[in-house]
Amino acid sequence: MDPVSVGLLAALAGGAGGELGRQAWAGLSALVRRPFRRDAGEEAPSVSSGEAELRRLEEDPTDQQQAQALSTALAVRAALDTDFRTGLAAWQEQAELVSTGDGTVHNTISGGTQHGPVLQGRNFSGLSFTTPPSVPPSPAAQPTADADNGDSTSPPVRG
Fold it and tell me: Could you say which DSSP state residue 36 is in?
């Protein structure tokens, strides 16, 4: 299992992703607070459950060291607890769908003249354009070059 992204943890702890981000963070919190699964008579492992790291990251979401500590605690716990690993994998799959504002966007428009609306960005949904696209000018409406002086805006006025 891949470790949980430090950037994702910090972003979710800081409230990124709106309501979906808050739900993802609450889901992780609930998962971490579940006790280690152990067989009868077996003692709990002497490693962090991740609760302390989770709480410290909640207190300071900008602290990358706290985010790294939580990521490490989650990975260690997942290696020791099969049920936790399964739950963490499912959580991580859903959490990665939350738009946390990280990542880059590269938009390019090239190759001639575009007519109509252009929207550049990332993660759009539910869009509608209510204005008709602009119509390119017809060739008949284009100014013509004057043979006498090369003026391409209008023919000279002679009087």
Answer: P
Residue with tokens 């509608």: 128
Instruction: Report the alpha-carbon distance of residue 136 to residue 3 in Å, rounded.
Output: 53
Residue 108, C-beta contacts closer than 8 angstroms, at least 6 positions apart: none
* Helical segments of the chain, H only: 6-13, 18-33, 51-59, 64-80, 82-95
The CA distances from residue 148 to 12, 78, 117, 139, in Å, are 69, 83, 40, 22
Distances (CA, A) of 88 to 4, 48, 125: 9, 15, 28
Angle of CA points 127, 131, 134, to nearest 5°: 120
Q: 3-class SS at 51?
A: helix
pLDDT digits (tens, 9 = 90+) for 52-82: 999 999 999 999 999 999 999 999 999 988 9
For 35-38, the CB contacts below 8 A with 24+ separation are 36/77, 36/80, 36/81, 36/84, 37/81, 37/82, 37/83, 37/84
Summarize pLDDT for 34-45 with one digit per residue, the tens.
987 754 455 655
